[in-house]
Amino acid sequence: MAEPFTEKVIEILKKIPEGKVISYGAVAVCAGSPRSARQVVRILHSSSEKYNLPWHRVINSRGYIAIKDHEGFAEQKALLEMEGVFPDASGQIPEKDRWIP
């Protein structure tokens, strides 16, 4: 059984609407632990496949795709574009595509 914070994070992540993004920090705030953005990253990394989480809809607090390696960046950008979210060349997501639960 997952920890309560982990369960809350997974529940929030599953609710992110198609075509919207949210920051790691905003997920942490919604889950009740505002200083736990890095824990959200770890949960996504370890549980995305197991729980079929929309990892590609989570960005950094500045509004950018956080993945640094070229392949991962390109994959996240492509998945977002398929949902109608069009990051610029640097990976910044338009404000209109941000989700506030």
Describe this structure in words.
- The chain is mainly alpha-helical and 101 residues long.
- The protein has one domain (4-96): Orthogonal Bundle (Arc Repressor Mutant, subunit A).
- It has helices spanning 4-15, 24-30, 37-51, 70-82, and strands at 22-23, 58-59.
- Strands 1-2 form a two-stranded parallel sheet.
- The protein is globular, with a radius of gyration of 13 Å.
- The chain starts with a helix and ends in a 19-residue tail after the last helix.
- The model has no long low-confidence stretch (mean pLDDT 96).
CATH class: Mainly Alpha
Fill in the CATH topology. Answer: Arc Repressor Mutant, subunit A
> Mind describing the biggest β-sheet?
2 strands, parallel
Whole-number total of structural domains: 1
Q: Which outline best applies?
A: globular
Helix content: 40-55%
Give average pLDDT, whole number: 96
Please name the fourth-level CATH homologous superfamily.
Answer: Winged helix-like DNA-binding domain superfamily/Winged helix DNA-binding domain
List the uncertain runs: none
The H/E string reads: HEHHEH
Based on secondary structure, the structural category is mainly alpha
Proportion of beta-strand residues: under 5%
Strands, count: 2
Q: What is the CA–CA distance across the termini?
A: 25 Å
* Number of alpha- plus pi-helical segments: 4
At CATH level 2, the architecture is: Orthogonal Bundle
Radius of gyration: 13 Å
Strand order of the largest sheet: 1-2
